[in-house]
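Hi team,

Filling in the usual template for the complex we talked about on Friday. All components are listed, including any nucleic acid strands or ligand strings, so the model treats them as one assembly.

SUBMITTER: L.P.
PURPOSE: interface mapping
COMPONENTS: two
RESIDUES: 940
SEQUENCES:
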Amino acid sequence: MPTVSMTVNGKQVSADVEARTLLVEFIREHLDLTGTHVGCDTSQCGACVVHLDGRSVKSCTMLALEADGAEVTTIESLSNGVELHPMQAAFKEHHGLQCGFCTPGVVMSVLDLVSRNPDPSEAEVRDWLEGNLCRCTGYHNIIKSVQAGAAAMGG
Amino acid sequence: MANEGIGAAVRRKEDARFLTGRANYTDDINRPGQLYMVLVRSPEAHAELVRIDTAAAEAADGVVAVFTGADLEADGVGGIPCAWAVDHEDGTPMAEPVHPVLAQGRVRHVGDPVVAVIAETKAQARAAAGLVDVEYQPVPAIADVAGAVESDAPQIWDEAPGNICFKFGIGDAEAVDAAFDGAAHVVTLDLVNNRLIPNAIEPRAAIGEFEPTSGEYTLYTTSQNPHVIRLLMGAFVLHIPEHKLRVIAPDVGGAFGSKIFHYAEEALVTWASGKLALPVKWTAERSESFMSDAHGRDHVTHAELALDDEGMFLALRTKTLANLGAYISTFGPAVPTYMHAVLFAGCYTTPVIRAVVHGVFTNTVPVDAYRGAGRPEATFMLERLVDIAARKLGMSRVEIRRKNFIKDFPYQTPVALEYDSGDYGGTLDVALELGSWNDFETRREEARARGKFRGIGLSTFIEACGAAPSALAGQLGARAGLFEVGQVRVHPTGSVTVFTGSHSHGQGHETAFAQIVCEALGMSVDQVDVVHGDTGRVPFGMGTYGSRSLAVGGSAIQKALEKIIAKGKKIAAHMMEASEGDVEFADGQFTVVGTDKSTTFGEVALTAYVPHDYPEGLEPGLDETAFYDPVNFTYPAGAHIAEVEIDPETGVVELVALSAADDVGRIINPMIVEGQMHGGMAQGVGQALLEACRYDDDGQLLTGSYMNYTMPRATNFPFFATGHNITHCTHNPLGVKGVGEVGAIGVPAAVINAVVDALAHLGVEHVDMPATPEKVWRIIQDATA
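RESULT (copied from the run log):
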């Protein structure tokens, strides 16, 4: 089995994996970082979004080996569980989540949006979220949360 | 202390774990030594199983076991039970064929599980599943509900001639026929209520684990009602007594009805863990979800409404074919009957109603409750008919509704239900304001000038939720009680743990239920934790569905709190040397009436656990349980308004505005209520404009992934407008009704009424859902040809 090495949430990790191992499988099953979710098998739902070298990617859509040498960050990197990141706090304040399953992917996705566009309009947020499915919220409070989170981050 | 009681928009206690990736969904759980199960599912819609050869799979790397239906049969594993039987109208029982856990002799829908392959890794199980050789002998299949009742249709079950499961009827046929004979106007409608796939974003998953020394099984599963699964699976399928079976439904990532039902995979992992003495885990891939999660809706209906010259409704007559799929799912028969036909009065005084519903088997995935469950179908039929009647009689769509509204409560409908409270006219007023109904025509003209067809649509609705009085449910065929359980455990230092039989999978019970405790005991939400989803910790429960959690589960907690306060008064009276009758409790203080003597709730709690100086004969401790069985359903109601703009060149329907005014009863947390409304509204829009499950003529599922089943996305919606006009439920201790389903019930009819309004100038009377660009474009082409 080939060896894959990468930095995940600031820590150097290395493991022997089957070549077919997806990045999301590596994150969930080898590293036990279960905040990143799998909601589909066609790269539609976005529950698995993480950052790869600072950009959002669907971790179900690439092999772990493709991330060799990369910097990966997952939802677990944003907070120690007590102090929330401003975007997470905005989701709580504006009720931008219900069942929570799509939430880590949505948060990781919109952080990439805000890094490119610090003050996104409603239409820009809706358009950006084309790749994230939420069945609970009707997106209304997600949009409000993203705009508030962007503002809190200094946008 | 900030007010965190009833009515406060308290931010959710549960959010931190969801936002930080620390939640605990079933697939996040891994048990030591666990094996992985992959299912071989039928690619055929209807076929005889000629031969199953598992030799190659058994010999594959890492494979521990391969099981077929024959293995389960040899071990005495039972079929998957139905929890609600619906008799034929003549009183004879419905056809109830056995639903085997793995197919026996024949497969009846694409996705029907045939073989379970269990291996040391998921990849090994998946690879070995590909080596199982099943020889199928296809026989003719039928997926379409109308086609399934034709005389030459393929027959799916010997015990269900004509593919009929039941022929249900309700209402006085003779009186209805007489009313139609004398009516000034009759309007008719033939409609299809489109089949939907629930699509919670978390796929179903299950882990079975057996402990040989105690003989105890544990099932971790994505369920809305772990006690119900324990009962159904333990008693009927695997014959495991309750004390040896623990069912845990941890964090569940959305459900919308699809995780109510007992599924084959739950029984398989549990049974296999016993056989193999190792934990067995199964997680659905999304493509499996599409062909194994129970689907929703799928009706074909003919409906007629009789009216007098003034536009008063005289009678309603309907006939519905309801697709049940290939097997009877847990609540499959109840959804198109007791959750559908009994709602046909809607908000109106229609004096006589006759509804016939035939439950029909087809070669499709079983159909069961999906958000709204029967009530969206009832509302769509009724509110479309009312719009057609308004146009035929030249009346305003608002006035015909207002004129026929029920105004006096309680109100006994001609279809069994008795509504306890409501104010339909007041709610409609709120909606008209929210939706800017009265100045719509200027927007229509402005759009017309841009070459667009703009329309506005209204729907009112009633729903029955908070199921149910157990005795009534039993008379109607339910095979279980429908009460709920709440336990309030006050700890020695005064903090509280609540154990509830309801299950939260997005609804925010951990916060809203804590608020009920705060209101009663005068504390803050961080002093209250709510435990749910574990038969090993919660005394009992019937779970969460049909918007019942607050009305039934919340009421059970309230009843337990009343017991806590009553016992607390006894202790406080002793502490203050007063008579129990003179002690009052408010804002966390027990007070002797008319004196300045008081003691805190915390002091009373401590005394209950340190009973050195204590009332004689009173048990120590402060921990009370209530089983609450409601005396009636609750009846949320609302008025929804949709505004759309259609591009005649493309047929694209843009949802411009969506407004909902709802009477959901007393509101515990307005933030959560609004979120529930939004979610239901989005699913309503999905049904109206986007979503459709399609099978081809051979029973192949054409919409088997997100590539071809249109899920609503952020770009499909404007911001929603929401409002309330609250009346309290008169018969439960909190005055609450329910909110989980309102959006999904009212919105589809409002959106389609808007689409038809936009096209009415072309002579269009009806558009079936979903109003896709292609369908709308063809309607426009045909109308203008």
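MY TAKE: Chain B has three domains: 31-139+201-254+259-292, 299-467+632-784, 483-628. Residues 549-575 of chain B form the longest helix (27 residues).

Thanks, L.
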